Amino acid sequence: MPTEAHPDLALLGLLQLVSPALPIGGFAWSQGLESALELGWVCDEQSLGDWLEGVLEDGPGHAELPVMARLMEAWQRGDEVALVHWDRWLAACRESRELAEEERQLGASLKRLINSLGLWPEQPTLPPGAGYTTAFSAVAVIRGIETRQALLGFTWNWLENQLAVACKAMPLGHTAAQRLVERLRPELIRCIDQALVLEDDQLGPALPGLALASAKHETQYSRLFRS
């Protein structure tokens, strides 16, 4: 699988991949947060920080991040069996229709974008209906991004998206959002340190509250984000 070898190109490629300007539609989804706001589970800066810390620890920290490390290794080896296995494993972790559709649609949008730039490799092939995490891992390998840096970028993108949702859907100013960035930056690093040492039998998200919020979002009377 071809990669870009120059470290500066890799860094710029990562910045491009996690930019809010990347036209794949990530801004349209709230990942259950809008419903948590409506239900009163999240109501201010402190509770939002608590929510995000919990989601990070029990969600990406035990699912997307360790699996992305495995996916990147599989892309580098050309191991299509492992790619299919981990892509399906992540799909099985999506506990609501909304979360499943977000993963599939962002994955398809990212693949279309990379195809349009002439960067998608012929081999190995992307599993049919592959999700966003699988597509992101492929682009990270194409760009020559190191695994740890790819995980940092992926997690940073998740945090920025969640804070953007909060700024739109609740009384949260941009300065408060930056305070939460400062609070959560060390947590991102700790979460990645943990993700990189987890064994296969230690993986799996534990987010019943987020799953319930995401399911309730489908029937929420007034909403800004997709369900």
From TrEMBL:
- Where does it primarily localize? cytoplasm
Annotated GO molecular function terms are: nickel cation binding
Q: Which domain of life does this protein belong to?
A: Bacteria
Give the UniProt entry's GO cellular component terms: cytoplasm
KW ATP-binding (keyword) present: no
Q: Which Pfam families match?
A: UreF
* Keyword Lyase among record annotations: no
The cross-references to InterPro entries, in alphabetical order and at most eight, read: UreF, UreF_sf
Q: Name where it's found.
A: Cytoplasm
Per UniProt, which keywords does this protein have? Chaperone, Cytoplasm, Nickel insertion
The family annotation for this protein states:
Belongs to the UreF family.
* Role, per record: Required for maturation of urease via the functional incorporation of the urease nickel metallocenter.
Whom does it interact with, and what assembly results? Answer: UreD, UreF and UreG form a complex that acts as a GTP-hydrolysis-dependent molecular chaperone, activating the urease apoprotein by helping to assemble the nickel containing metallocenter of UreC. The UreE protein probably delivers the nickel.
- The protein in question is named Urease accessory protein UreF
Organism of origin: Halomonas huangheensis
